[in-house]
Design a protein that fits this description.
Strand order of the largest sheet of chain B: 1-2
GO molecular function (chain A): transmembrane transporter activity
Oligomer: heterodimer
Keywords (chain A): Amino-acid transport, Cell membrane, Membrane, Transmembrane, Transmembrane helix, Transport
Shape of chain A: globular
Strand content of chain A: under 5%
Order of helices and strands of chain B: HHHHHEHHHHEHHHHH
Number of helices of chain B: 14
GO cellular component, one term (chain A): plasma membrane
Helix content of chain A: over 70%
Organism (chain A): Bradyrhizobium oligotrophicum S58
Membrane topology (chain A): Multi-pass membrane protein
Radius of gyration of chain A: 19 Å
Shape of chain B: globular
Chain lengths: 290, 323
């Protein structure tokens, strides 16, 4: 039926795609950890980043990996502005308000993209889009190998930012004890906005890593965001190592279920993991008990 | 919070029931039918999301269950449309009990509840899309057979009357919630679940009843939708658009109020239609407007249009007195 080589190759490629999933989930879990809310606009913001990368490549002839250097600051600024000027004020700081405002934002963004770009799918072809890397007898997709490496590097960088910089320490302080942090002079709205900005910058990196081998359409983010929710829940909401390991795990599961069940039913494996995790251990693998 | 009287509701329903006979064009009749179907779905959402404070992002699970029950029962088993409608609604209550049993037993609330309902709807969509029994990706066509026994009418006004009848049932259910002990329990657990539990409210049982009623109402909307358009597929029946419209209508109109979902559905769909007209069919513009309205209403009128109107109405006389 399936030769061991095909199975191992599929699982390894899944693992590497999972790394990019993890990068998307990283921003989501960070925002959850600090604002204690699921950001429903995360998928739509990923789509925005992917369109930015696409524009940079299609219009200005930039390499998608190089485009990250320009798109990441743009997404950082966008994320900061969204949280500071729209999500924060509009939600009045209420959990249910944030949930609904981010849902509203996701619909605004998705449909604005639809109005601007129609529903066509757009791709970028680079000379390495279909290149493979030989690892002994195994053939691995080059964009996925790069994605894996960059994700690991980005996660380490994020870890350093959170533990070594002032803003990182402020973010962790607000996540643990909002009132206490504000009493010692930390501006909570600023920290919220910085968290959102960092989450969006992670999306820019993911977008740059995805574009050489993936397509973008206004609804692309919606497909990724449910996967990202699953990863965040599985890894434990707010846990960064959880997001990384959860992402890799989900990538492997998706590869396995697509290989054995076919593409259309393959996705169902992810949702079932999602539902079972929520029901059995809503705090996930690495989350603290709520 | 002021509660509307039953007579007020009767007047509103009577006014709605006159509209079909006011000489509307076919397009307007169709729009009103859709308004009533969305209003009914939103009334269902409101029982759980508005009164009990459990915001579902996946009410499409119910809507789709209704639409598929209607289509499958009629086309595959030759069941009469009215009987299919009754079975469909009962199925909706069961689906609600199933999702509720799993979610509430694990104590899911807030974002977690929103996410799991979304996941259930997606699982249903994927299954309906790939299973031969449900017509797969091609969907199901219901045979055109006009006449009261088939719940299909060549005169659109009669179908509109039936949808108005269901909205009226939704109004009465919500009115009953506002006046019953059960409704008070729901609000109590929305405001403070632990306190409600401490006072001896059986929180699990109350939530189970709420999700079953909520599911039944939204499922009825799905049944009517299938019977109106005579065609469904997985993306229409279980797609996120209906979860979003039900939630939007209830919140924009006023969640946790009797009239909110109805007013929200009328306002949203009118604005959506207006946008489509103004934007000359640029795709997505109407939904973009929905999104803007949702954000604005959370920002400026968190209690919805109903409460906004009431507070404006109450403020005016008191200002007059001061002057």
């Amino acid at each position: 039926m399936y030769s061991p080589q095909i199975v191992v190759e599929a699982l390894l490629n899944g693992l590497m795609l999972g790394a990019i999933y993890a990068l998307i989930a990283l921003g989501l879990t960070l925002i959850y950890g600090v604002l204690h809310i699921v950001n429903f606009a995360h998928g739509a913001l990923l789509t925005v980043a992917m369109f930015m990368v696409w524009l940079a490549c299609a219009r200005f002839g930039l390499d998608p990996y190089l485009a990250i250097l320009f798109v990441a600051p743009a997404m950082f600024a966008l994320g900061y502005a969204l949280q500071r000027f729209i999500i924060g004020p509009a939600s009045h700081g209420k959990d249910n308000g944030i949930l609904l405002v981010t849902l509203g934002l996701s619909i605004i963004i998705e449909n604005a993209l639809l109005a601007a770009f129609q529903s066509d799918t757009r791709t970028i072809t680079t000379d390495y889009s279909f290149r493979v890397v030989e690892l002994g007898p195994l053939l691995l997709s080059f964009p996925r190998v790069v994605g894996f490496g960059v994700t690991i590097a980005t996660t380490l960088l994020l870890w350093l930012v959170l533990h070594q910089t002032d803003i990182g320490k402020a973010i962790r302080a607000v996540a643990k004890e909002k009132l206490g942090a504000s009493l010692v002079g930390i501006s909570v709205p600023h920290v919220y906005a910085m968290t959102f900005a960092i989450g969006c910058a992670c999306l820019a990196v993911a977008a740059g890593l995805l574009m050489p081998s993936f397509y973008v359409s206004p609804k692309t983010g919606a497909a990724f965001v449910l996967v990202a929710f699953t990863i965040v829940v599985l890894g434990g909401m707010g846990s960064i190592p959880g997001a990384l390991i959860g992402g890799l795990l989900i990538g492997v599961v998706e590869a396995a279920s697509s290989l054995f069940l076919g593409d259309s039913l393959g996705q169902i494996g992810i949702f079932l993991i999602f539902i079972v995790t929520l029901l059995v251990r809503p705090t996930g693998l690495f989350g603290a008990r709520a | 919070m002021t509660k509307p009287r039953l007579t007020t509701l009767a007047i509103i329903v009577a006014a709605l029931a006159v509209i079909p006979f006011a000489g509307l064009s076919g397009a307007l009749l169709n729009l009103m039918i859709l308004m009533m179907i969305i209003a009914l779905a939103a009334q269902g959402w409101n029982i759980l999301g508005g009164y009990a404070g459990l915001s579902s992002f996946g009410h499409a699970a119910f809507f789709g269950a209704g639409a598929y029950a209607m289509a499958v029962l009629q086309t595959r088993f030759g069941v009469n449309a009215w009987i299919a409608l009754v079975i469909g609604i009962a199925l909706g209550a069961l689906v609600g009990a199933f999702i509720g049993f799993l979610s509430f037993r694990s104590g899911l609330k807030g974002s977690y509840f929103a996410l799991i309902t979304l996941a259930f709807a997606e699982v249903a969509r994927i299954i309906a899309n790939s299973w031969n029994f449900t017509g797969g990706a091609a969907g199901i066509l219901i045979k055109l057979q006009t006449g009261l026994p088939y719940l299909q009418f060549s005169d659109r006004r009669y179908f509109l009357l039936i949808t108005i009848g269901f909205v009226a049932i939704g109004l009465v259910v919500s009115w009953w919630l506002e006046h019953s002990r059960f409704g008070a329990y729901l609000v109590a657990l929305r405001e403070n679940e632990q306190a409600a539990q401490a006072l001896g409210v059986d929180v699990f049982a109350v939530k189970m009843k709420a999700i079953a009623i909520s599911g039944a109402l939204t499922t009825a909307a799905g049944c009517l939708y299938a019977q109106n358009y005579l065609f469904i597929d997985a993306n229409v029946a279980f797609g996120s658009w209906i979860s979003i419209e039900a939630l939007f209508a209830a919140i924009v109109g006023g969640s946790g109020t009797v009239l909110g979902p109805l007013i929200g559905a009328i306002v949203l769909l009118s604005l959506g239609e207006l946008t489509k007209g103004v934007s000359h069919g640029i795709p997505g513009m109407d939904l973009m407007v929905f999104g803007v309205i949702l954000v604005l209403s959370v920002a400026f009128s968190p209690n919805g249009l109903v409460m906004l109107m009431k507070s404006l109405g109450l403020r005016a006389p008191s200002k007059a007195k001061e002057a």
